[in-house]
Specification:
Length: about 270
C-alpha cells in the first residue's frame, strides 16, 4: 500500500513536471515570428489565386492568336462580371474555394469544350461579353474575377476594409495615389491602374509583386484580364509594362501601337 502511494506521488510529480516543461516550451514558440505587413498579404493572396485551381475552357468567341482552348496553369479564370454569385442579402465577391466549387459543378466528365459547361444551381464558369456589351452566361452562372474584383478580393482578404467596386475607377477612389514612383516609395501590394487609351478612365488594374530595378515597367504585377495571349483568360503574373507591342517594350504582337499609350499610376491602401 505504501509502495503504491509512493508510485502515485511520483507519477503525479512527473505529470506536473511534464506540463510545466510543455507550457514553457510552447510559450516560446513563435516569439520571433513576425506577422507580415498587410501589403505583403495582398501579394500572397493575389498569388494564391494564380495557383491550385482546376483547368478551365476558354470561350471560342474570344480572339485567340494561339488557338488555345483550355488553360491548365491552375489559375482563377477571368469573367466580365465584377461581383459574382448570389445570396439572400445580394451579390458578394467570389473566393478561390467558391470559384473551384462552382467551376467543378459546371463541368461534366470528359468535357471537351466551353459550350459543355452546365448552367445549374451552384455552378459557374468563365463568362464573356460581346461587342454590344452583352454578357453570357447570365452573371449568376459566371465564375472568376474581373480585374478590379481580383484586386479587391486580395485587399479585403489581407484585412483591409473596402467597398465592392463596380469599376476600376470605384476601386482606385478608395486608395491613395503615390505621386513619386520609385522602388523606395512603392511597396509590394500596392496597386497599379492602367489607362490604355489615355481617355481618363481606368481600364485595368493589378497588384504589384516586385519593385526591383530602375525600369518601372520591368516590375512584376499580378492581374486578371480576358486576354488569351500570355494571360490565358485569367489571373497571372506579368511585367508592369506588358501592355505594349514588342516594338514598344511590351509583348502583345497584335495590339495596334496607335491609340495604345499605356498611361498608368500607382496607388496604395497602406498608410503613407
Amino acid at each position: 500500500m505504501r509502495l503504491k502511494l509512493i508510485y502515485a506521488k511520483l507519477f503525479m510529480i512527473f505529470i506536473l513536471l511534464s506540463l510545466f516543461i510543455f507550457s514553457c516550451a510552447t510559450s516560446n514558440v513563435g516569439n520571433d515570428a513576425v506577422d507580415p505587413p498587410a501589403n505583403e498579404k495582398i501579394v500572397s493572396i493575389a498569388y494564391s489565386l494564380t495557383d491550385g485551381c482546376p483547368a478551365y475552357f476558354i470561350p471560342l468567341e474570344v480572339y485567340n492568336p494561339t488557338d488555345l482552348v483550355k488553360s491548365d496553369r491552375g489559375r482563377v479564370a477571368w469573367t466580365p462580371t465584377g461581383i459574382m454569385g448570389a445570396s439572400p442579402t445580394g451579390y458578394f465577391l467570389e473566393s478561390k474555394d467558391t470559384f473551384i466549387r462552382r467551376l467543378n459543378n459546371a463541368s461534366i466528365p470528359d468535357q471537351t469544350s466551353y459550350s459543355q459547361y452546365q448552367q445549374i444551381q451552384g455552378a459557374g464558369f468563365p463568362g464573356m461579353v460581346d461587342d454590344n456589351g452583352v454578357q453570357s452566361p447570365d452573371r449568376f452562372y459566371q465564375a472568376g474575377f474581373v480585374c478590379y474584383a481580383y484586386v479587391t478580393r486580395s485587399i479585403r482578404d489581407a484585412g483591409f476594409t473596402i467597398t465592392n467596386p463596380a469599376s476600376v475607377d470605384e476601386l482606385i477612389n478608395q486608395l491613395t495615389k503615390i505621386n513619386i514612383i520609385n522602388a523606395t516609395t512603392v511597396k509590394t501590394g500596392d496597386i497599379v491602374a492602367y489607362d490604355f487609351d489615355n481617355d481618363g478612365v481606368w481600364e485595368h488594374c493589378g497588384v504589384i509583386n516586385n519593385v526591383d530595378g530602375e525600369n518601372i515597367e520591368d516590375w512584376t504585377v499580378f492581374s486578371s484580364i480576358g486576354l488569351v495571349e500570355l494571360f490565358e483568360y485569367g489571373a497571372t503574373e506579368t511585367r508592369l509594362g506588358v501592355f505594349r507591342t514588342p516594338e514598344n517594350g511590351g509583348y502583345f504582337t497584335w495590339w495596334e501601337e496607335s491609340g495604345l499609350t499605356l498611361y498608368y499610376e500607382i496607388y496604395t491602401k497602406r498608410s503613407i
